[in-house]
# Entry
Amino acid sequence: MARAPQSQRRRFGRGELLQPPAPAPAQALASCLEDLQRHWRMEGSLAAIWEDWPRLAGSQLAPHCRPLSLHNGLLTIGASHPQWRQALQYSRPQLMAALRSAGHSIKDLRIQQHHPAQRAELESEDAIWQRHPSRIDVHGLARCPRCQSPAPAGEMALWGHCGFCRRLELAAPEIASTDQ
# Structure
């Protein structure tokens, strides 16, 4: 049977108490982050490649192509146009060397055409608020035909009654379904 080291044993009356070993000394946060980053690269993380992509691909190629996936050391890169795909093909050896010198464990590259989805332009909050039906400074005030309380005229134009009556109207089917 193994015995605990002397540093973990404490005398207590006729017996001994065992204490847990002393914790490892604290490391500086910078060294922990460096270890994490190094482990990230060795494991083959697409996020690590994304982080290094502008530096690895260069200022001309990086805006027009992007890493898409990484599986078993095969990095798939998508180009936004056939000319950029051809440029990637020509610079393939340099890109492989740059990836490996940065610590990424890449076995091979696959270069393909990639058409990123266009993002829909979202309307700003200010534009939505400018036409919102609850604004009395734009639409004015009116009296609700159901409850006779003052409410924004925009709500009356939209629903035919105030927002409180609208809420009751929308909740009515739920109330009717629970009564059955």
User: Anything to note?
Assistant: The chain has a mean pLDDT of 84. The chain is about 45% helix and 20% strand. The longest strand covers residues 65-71.
